[in-house]
């Protein structure tokens, strides 16, 4: 796979069968997973190959080193630039374009590097949810995004059950692990970072 920043942002979109009325409120809300979507999968590689302890040490040691760019980073930038234009007109809380980070990372253990990376990129999302491994359903139900991007199919499947139009980013070790697990008929140990 080529480096994500040299190509076009792409994902496999899944429609949902549930009817919702989220598109009728005049806003565009887009929700992104972090690792393997906005960011590269470099931290997730450490987690999946070396375990949680090595992952935590890596994130602490690399706190001031921005994460690499993921496949959807450029799309986020385009949306944030639209947000900034509305902000310049005084539209903040009622900005018609809103962006959300919904990550399984822990805010204390591994969230700092994410926030510092976004700051280094000059990209500020509307809101960020650090779930510490908890399910993504509750924040997605609250956000009611018009589309949600994640690199791990189990999260996509969960979002679809809520009626969220979701797009699977087929990139990185999370995606590769899922493919391998499918081949073996095992869907365990797929914790997303
Ligand atoms: Mg991910």
Automatic annotation (TrEMBL):
It holds the Pfam family 5-nucleotidase. GO terms for biological process: adenosine metabolic process; nucleotide metabolic process. It comes from the Eukaryota. GO terms for molecular function: 5'-nucleotidase activity; magnesium ion binding; nucleotide binding. One of its GO terms (cellular component) is cytosol. This is 5'-nucleotidase. It comes from Conger conger.
